[in-house]
Design brief:
InterPro entries: Transposase_IS66_Orf2. It holds the Pfam family TnpB_IS66. This is Transposase. The longest helix is centred in the first third of the chain and has 11 residues, at 23-33. 12% of the residues lie in helices and 30% in strands. It is built from one helix and five strands; from the N terminus they run βαββββ. It has a domain at 7-63. The chain is globular, with a radius of gyration of 12 Å. It has a five-stranded mixed sheet with strand order 4-3-2-1-5, with helices on one face.
Length: 88
Amino acid sequence: MIPLPSGTKIWLVAGITDMRNGFNGLAAKVQTTLKDDPMSGHVFIFRGRNGSQVKLLWSTGDGLCLLTKRLERGRFAWPSARYEQLTS
């Protein structure tokens, strides 16, 4: 388990994301689509087209982390693109 600092928001980026994107592509999507700073310390979660993979982009203060989870079976439930962003 990776502990998150208190006050860290977790953003689900609605719709689909090209999973070929890495650090730079996902950080650019945070800036252009969400109008947020990828270095803010919040966690931004992106889902691929077929729903079996997500990527998390998170700044720890001294650099960016890019975490990937791919399901062997099933799909991640995800909001439609009309909502653009959700946070918790």
